[in-house]
Write a structure and sequence with these properties.
Mean pLDDT: 94
Strand content: 25-35%
Helix content: 25-40%
Largest sheet: 7 strands, mixed
Low-confidence stretches: none
Order of helices and strands: HEHHEEHEHEEHEEEEHHHEEEEE
CATH class of the largest domain: Alpha Beta
Radius of gyration: 22 Å
CATH superfamily of the largest domain: Bira Bifunctional Protein, Domain 2
Number of strands: 15
Number of helices: 9
CATH architecture of the largest domain: 2-Layer Sandwich
Number of domains: 3
Bound molecules: biotin
């Protein structure tokens, strides 16, 4: 019920809501309403109380709140099973454990802080407390293992669209799935999957969004190539809002993908890409490849046009610019 009370305040942002209106809407006593407001205050919400007008929500806690997240989510299934933690080693590990225990598709794991955040290619992902969005999502798509790169591209498109809508920043996708603005990386995606006989049994999509990190949160060597939405846009963002709008965008695109396949996702990805049509160096386990990326093929591989005119599909590599 705290969630329903909070939703009423969030729907009437900046306005007074009377205790009577809440008790009528939720069909509970005025005392029960008062107790719920006290409970929200204990969680860090601040209200202004007026004898005549009721309560006005002034601010929320800096901490992520499960109640607030649930109240703000506007999805049917994505993120509805929520596991919110203070500190974990990696949300990827927590989500994997839940997947093995049979948790349903759409299960969302979020942590305020990760002690061993994992990046792509075995790298470490810095995840300081209370400043970013560190989350993992459990998906159970009925797809062949071969199509899992498409899910990575889809996730990047959803995140890019959500963040562009929430900020005034010009955010683009660097292949395969880094989000950049002003040439700096502000988010990363790590997809880990489990498969049986070439069919995916589940996928854990790990997303790190550097939302409100400050310069001092970064190791100096990272500052040249990474930044947070706050550092780039000059404004702190409500992390609940980031999660809610990303979940909404991802649910819609995932359903579109299941209905219509990869083609519409490819078009959206290409429109947001910042790494097409300029000379690039791709470092693959087999060595370096140079050429001009010209688009994606129908499987989601990057099409690299080499100097001799040959076009080569590349599934996995690290992209750099000479
Ligand atoms: C990258 O290298 O760009 C991918 C970074 C992915 C980081 C996220 S944060 C939430 C989830 N848990 C992890 O340990 N890693 C992913």
């Amino acid at each position: 019920m705290s969630e329903q009370v909070l939703r009423m305040f969030l729907d009437k942002e900046g306005e007074y809501v009377s205790g009577e209106a809440i008790s009528r809407e939720l069909q509970v006593s005025r005392t029960a309403v008062w107790k719920k407001i006290r409970k929200l205050e204990e969680e860090g919400y601040r209200f202004e109380a007026s004898r005549k007008l009721g309560y006005k929500l002034l601010s929320g806690p800096d901490r992520l709140s499960a109640v607030k997240l649930q109240a703000m989510l506007d999805t049917r299934w994505l993120g509805r099973r929520l596991h919110l933690h203070d500190t974990v080693d990696s949300t990827q590990h927590v989500a994997r454990r839940l997947a093995e225990e049979g948790a349903p598709e759409g299960t969302l794991v979020i942590a305020e802080q990760q002690l061993q955040g994992k990046g792509r290619l075995g790298r470490r992902w810095e995840s300081p407390k209370g400043k970013g969005v560190w989350l993992s999502l459990l998906l159970r798509p009925k797809l062949s293992l071969q199509r899992s790169p498409q899910l990575t591209l889809l996730t990047a498109v959803a995140l890019c669209r959500a963040l562009r809508r929430l900020t005034e920043l010009d955010i683009g996708i660097k292949w395969p799935n880094d989000l950049l603005s002003g040439g700096k990386k502000l988010s990363g995606i790590l997809l880990e999957s489990s498969a049986e006989e070439e069919r995916l049994s589940y996928v854990i999509a790990g997303i790190g969004i550097s939302a409100n990190l400050e310069e001092s949160d970064y190791p100096p060597e990272l500052l040249e190539k990474a930044a947070s939405l706050y550092m780039l846009g000059g404004r702190k963002l409500d992390r609940h809002q980031i999660v809610a709008s990303f979940m909404k965008e991802l649910e819609e695109l995932y359903e579109l993908y299941m209905r219509e396949g990869f083609c519409p996702i490819r078009t959206l990805w290409e429109a947001l890409a910042v790494s097409l049509h300029k000379h690039a160096v791709l470092t693959t386990p087999q060595g370096e490849l140079e050429g001009v990326p010209v688009g994606l093929d129908e499987n989601g591989a990057l099409l690299l046009k080499m100097d001799n005119g040959e076009v080569l599909p590349v599934f996995s590599a690290e992209m750099g610019w000479p």
